[in-house]
Amino acid sequence: MIRRFFIVLMLIFSHAAIADEAADKAEFQKLYAQFNDLYANSKDLDPIIAVAEKVYELGQQVYGKDHMNTAVVTYNLASLYSEKGEKTQNGELSVKASRLYNDYFKILDDNDVPKDNTYINQYLQYIKTLAFDDRSRSIHATANKVIGFAKDANYNDAEMASLEFNVGLLLFKNTDYQKSKSHFERASELFETAYGPDNYNVGEAEFWVAKLDMGTNSNSRAETHFLKALDIFKKNPEKSKKLTENTHAFLVAIYEEMDRSQEATLHCKAIAEERPKDFDQFIKPLYRKKPIYPAQQARTGNSGEVLLEFDVDTDGFTRNVRVIESSSKNFESASIKAAEGYRYAPSIQNGELVVTKGARVLIKYRLYKSR
Fold it and tell me: Is the pLDDT of residue 370 over 50?
């Protein structure tokens, strides 16, 4: 992110007009040189931001609020606020970034800057910050604007597919899941048109469509998209290792929800074969449902926890579930029943599936009061 706006600054401020003898422009040059030095040598964003703030304030004074040089220092500071806000989960910085980005694009539009690839990529950075700004309009409406810019710029299918995919990710992060799904669906279609049906990008878009279908309990549709993604990932193994593993895991959960344990077993074993690793006593399940809170304990507001130990057979089922410790016997039966339905990737030794002995899980029961 920093390198992108640094290059823009170099392009604009290397112009001879910068070398003005006026004191304020000399000060501007000095601050900008300081910014360059910090950019090259500091790993800490804070000192870079401190100088960028001074450059921004002085830039408005020297060039006016509508000048293109002011636009650049505005984008500079917005990008820094955005980067630090994202790293530190600081919503206030993200709001500052959003409002500076808005000022930046207003200057560009007032100066009739073409809405080209650079403009569009920068606009995506702006959209990322909108979720934190109460004054912003619908993020989806703003996202549709950038899709319109791309169409006007005659993006080809591959470029448009990538843009649709990135917009889908932005909307997903903003929990706008249904609209996010529509962008992933368009991305999948466009990637397939641009690159063919076996391209990795098609599989990645299908994975996200499936994940969103799963989130609305549309398990049959999710299964179809996950299986299509999985087939593509198998044809692109070098790129797809992590997504392949995640796809198998989601399919385990889907098939268990659909009472198709035999098909879930195939994917439990596939994960074991693709991800052989040393035994971890607190191995994470691929599928589990929350235990049923004992009615009497729920009525009285009692909390509790139960530590269970069990074996995992070569099909990924739990066996011999037993209680190791518990805060109350009242929670033990529900815990055992829950763990008996868990699914795991079995262990592999010397290339063979083996029974995992002594796996454990801690099940906690808590009631939370609504405010």
Answer: yes
Residue tagged 């998209």 (tokens): 225
What pTM does this model have?
A: 0.86
Question: Nearest-CA neighbor of 128 among 178, 167, 175, 180?
Answer: 167
Distances (CA, A) of 281 to 27, 152, 270, 341: 62, 56, 21, 18
pLDDT band of residue 87 (cuts 50, 70, 90) is: very high
Mean pLDDT, rounded, of the chain: 90
Token look-up 């809405």 returns: 115
**Cα–Cα dist 184/161, whole Å:** 9
Distance CA 176, CA 178 (A): 6
Predicted confidence at residue 280, as pLDDT, reads 78
42-61: pLDDT as tens digits = 889 999 999 999 999 998 98
Cα 174-254-339 angle, rounded to 5 deg: 105
Single out the residue of 186, 87, 92, 94 nearest to residue 139, CA to CA: 94
Q: What is the pLDDT of residues 158-188, one digit of tens each?
A: 999 999 999 999 999 988 999 999 999 999 9
Q: What is the DSSP string of 29-43?
A: HHHHHHHHHHHHH--
Overall residue count recorded for the chain in this entry: 371
Q: Distance between CA atoms of 193 and 210, rounded to whole angstroms?
A: 20
Is the pLDDT assigned to residue 212 strictly greater than 70?
A: yes
Domains along the sequence of the chain with CATH: 2-274 (1.25.40.10), 295-365 (3.30.2420.10)
Residues 88 and 28: their CA atoms lie apart, in Å, by: 29
Which residue would you say has higher pLDDT here, 12 or 171? 171
Q: Position 203: which residue type? A: G
Angle in degrees, 0-180, between the axes of helices 237-257 and 219-235, rounded to the nearest 10? 160
DSSP class of residue 299? H
How far apart, in Å, are the Cα atoms of 86 and each of 42, 60, 90, 118, 228?
19, 26, 7, 21, 33
Structure token pair of residue 138: 């619908």
